[in-house]
Design a protein that fits this description.
Blueprint: H1 3-18, E1 27-35, E2 45-49, E3 57-61, E4 67-73, E5 76-83, E6 89-97, E7 102-104, E8 107-109, E9 117-121, E10 135-138, H2 140-145, E11 162-164, E12 182-184, E13 192-195, E14 198-199, E15 218-224, E16 238-243, E17 251-260, H3 270-274, E18 282-297, E19 301-315, E20 339-356, E21 359-367, E22 370-375, E23 389-406, E24 411-428, E25 448-450, E26 455-457, E27 464-481, E28 485-494, E29 498-505, E30 510-515, E31 518-525, E32 528-548, E33 551-565, E34 569-571, E35 580-582, E36 590-603, E37 610-620, H4 626-630, H5 633-636, E38 640-644, E39 684-685, H6 687-690, E40 691-693, E41 698-711, E42 714-726, E43 729-733, E44 741-747, E45 761-768, E46 778-782, E47 789-803, E48 809-823, E49 837-838, E50 843-853, E51 858-867, E52 876-880, H7 881-888, E53 899-903, E54 915-928, E55 931-940, E56 948-951, E57 962-965, E58 970-978
Parallel strand pairs: 1-7, 1-8, 6-9, 13-16, 25-30, 36-40, 39-46
Antiparallel strand pairs: 1-4, 2-3, 2-5, 5-6, 10-15, 11-12, 13-14, 15-16, 17-18, 17-58, 18-19, 19-20, 20-21, 20-22, 21-23, 22-23, 23-24, 24-27, 25-26, 27-28, 27-29, 28-32, 29-32, 30-31, 31-38, 32-33, 33-36, 34-35, 36-37, 37-41, 41-42, 42-47, 43-46, 44-45, 47-48, 48-49, 48-50, 50-51, 51-54, 52-53, ...
Amino acid sequence: MERRDVVSLALVLVFLVLVPAVTFAQSGIAGVAKDTSGGVLPGVTVEAASPVLIEKVRTAVTDDQGRYNIVDLRPGVYTVTFTLTGFNTFKREDLDLPSSFTATVNAEMPVGALEETVTVTGQTPVVDLQSTAKEITLSKEMLEAVPTGRLPQSYMVLVPGVVQSTENFGVGLHNSFVQANLQFHGGPTDSQVNADGFQTRHMNVVGGAQYSVNQGTVQEVVVSAGMASAEQQAGGVVSNAIPKEGSNKFGGQFYFHYTNEHFLGDNLTDALRAIGASTQSIRRAWDYNPVVGGPIKQDRLWFLASYRNTASEVDSGYRFDVNPLDWVYTPDLSRPSASERIRDRNHSLRLTWQATPRNKVSAYYDHQPKDWYNRAIGGSHQGTPEASEWAPYLPQYLAQVVWRSPVSNRLMIEAGTSYQNTVLNMFPNDHETTNGGPTSPDLRAISAKDLDTNITFRGPDEAGIWHKSRSLRSRAAASYVTGTHAFKVGLDLVNGPGVRDRLLYQNGDYTVSLRSGVPVSITLFGPEFYTSRINPDLGVYTQDQWTIGRATLNLGARYDYLRSSVPAQDVPASRFLLARHFDPVGQVLGWHDLSPRLGLAYDLFGNGRTAFKAGVNRYVASEGTGTTDANNPVLTSVISATRNWTDTNGNFLPDCDFSNPASNGECGVLSNLNFGKQNPRATRYDPAVLQGFGRRGYNWETAASIQHQLVPGLAVEGAYFRRWFGNLTATDNQLVAPADFDPFCLTLPVNSRLPDGGGNQLCGFYDVTPTRFGQTQNLVTFASNFGKRTQVYNGVEFTVSARLRNGAQFSGGTSTGRTATSACFVVDSPQALMFCDVKPPFQTYLKLIWSYPLAWGIQASGALQSVPGPEISTTTYVATSSEVKPTLGRNLASGASGTVTLPLMQAGTVFGDAFSKLDVRLSKIFRVSRTRFTGSLDILNVLNGAGIAQVTTRYGPNWLKPTQIVGARLFRLSARVDF
């Protein structure tokens, strides 16, 4: 190591300690230089040149084994030149390097004069012989060709192994919240959306983000789909948008698309209408997105500016209430159903400055106000228009600064910071508007839920929210690269205030539950006004890619430390509770974890065409402020409680003394006698769960795969994945024991769609004894304290990827897997043993995307998804005291008018029919000088399929009624101008 490198590396290590710092998407070129006899050539100068580099050229020198490695390259087309005194110059041209890929380029250099050059061209390698991480790169051409919602995160659903909630399948062309419902290899919603390596999620949201990356500013999208390196904290699927940077030539792009309901077909069959299905398709959607960029100063300062206005409006399928203030939901058939609309506007600017030949700085700012009209309507929420909200995200912005420096041919350093701020406000809708608006709460519009249909109506159950999330994320890393080793050390950190503030209230401070229009209970609420902080969330990692012959070892380790706290808080008085003060909690979480990342990539035949890869990795669970919120004294004070309600006089007003928790007037006993109190009987967490080494939720992932290049540009891969989860928790009510529960059976309704046709008795249910009803002191602790709880995923994937010489591209494949869970032990109620072992069938998903150039400037592209149907075995039934009394021998503990929600089936056993969706785009390209015009026709759901994506699983009049079907065939027009 040169002295300059030693000094620079020392400075970087100091920088890593002192400067608080997520993963840079790195590409590279590596290989070996030999003479014509096969002997290795040390000391060869290797230059990688490309117009995408402001500095033009990146250089390396082969080591004593003839190997070289050039890292941290931007995606683009490169020329690689090898020079050594006494040998002919070897040049490899037109190497199209994608993101997050190490291309192997070897050189065979004959003895000869320096002025002689051997120039070769060839297809870019498609097999990465060094990395074990499974990453899918979607090029700029593919992003522009595939007919999607033009959100980088929306491409995640097209990756094999990613499971999208059927709630969001096929409805809407713009849904920036879709990633919040993505699962991967049996995990929870552990997806992550990054912009230039930085997370974009809210502090409290794990697996989701409200910020939407501006597609016009994106060069490529890299999706990490397993076996991630030590740079990635959590497992799951991660989408990273690689930004454009401008260039030495002024240019840009303008994109526009539009569609509305007049371009929409009809896929409602008589059979679907007979079971109550209704259309839930697009009403209108648009996207206009100009982008311009170029030099402010040649070879020194570039800019890229963009504006985007995009929205989609979806038919919710829910009609307005004829009388929004009565206590029965009666759909108004004289008015169209309401629509849900999301609109984003991006105002973004990126500056890229080559300050010196070895120092580059990129600064980015994006202001993105978002409007969400009729939020919480339809879908899983099943709320009517009157029960929805208008939810503006304002302000919402993202600011980033990133610095990179190739200090020498071997040493690279990089650092950056990202600040994100989002404020969400939610207002009750005006009853007379379709798209909602900010109005004063109507205290007459108490929210109501019909237990038979599970529909919320009259008013929103969350009538007002002020929610602020802000985070400062930083990162820094240093890489030392030789021909044999690529060593990297770094850190990433939420080092500023990772803060969540929230204020929530309900109209009238209570909600009502009814059956057949008759009130059965009310739920009382106190206001939620609280703050939670993450400071810090620190990760320090080290990793090395060590090439030994045909094998490359990927050796890494990561240390994670997360600490959270709660400041002093004051909550205002409400109808049922007095004003309250809560003292600060200095430390809620204090987690330390060490996770190994071990992998092997092996060139099976030594020709660079077939690689065997295997590895075992440990990840910590993603964590926002969720656990901290659960331990916030405001929330542990018990802010809601339920009372049975018998409306004897029929005035729909609960006539009782709310200050008296005992049964009085029309109200039953308060379900939780700690309502509003700050006392130790509220839910608390076992300190062993919150503090210590190795206490955080985690998962292990093992994988083995073989990737093979069939022909130049075309590769296939088969892979096996196993993922299992640890530190799973259980909740123990310490004021009850198994002996405090009495068994009962339920006679199932007669229905051919129930197991065995129904009509039989289903036993194994338990109800707490009346003397223990309402006594709650929950403790969240490790499930291992009671028995063995497991969650294990096993699956196989077969994928194909291609970038062919004629410009054709396609990728995708199948994934088949299942997640088995088991928790066959009793904590409180013996009912836990009922349906405790869940082993669903192995289910197969098919995902394909492609782009293919035809004659006369015509291009065809598309996306295909085939997925299993929605789960039906989550069906539940709301039973009354009169129904269970024959076997229980008494009324429910909640009283003669009480109810209990019961499962009717073993989970993971019954699913709806699988369904598919095929989207196609036909484009025509015209060229005038340097300007290219592209006109396109998108046909979404070409086959006009009507797959049922979601059904009502509450047994009753609407049981199995489709609440969402795949949108009907839709035509969309788009145009793009590149100049």
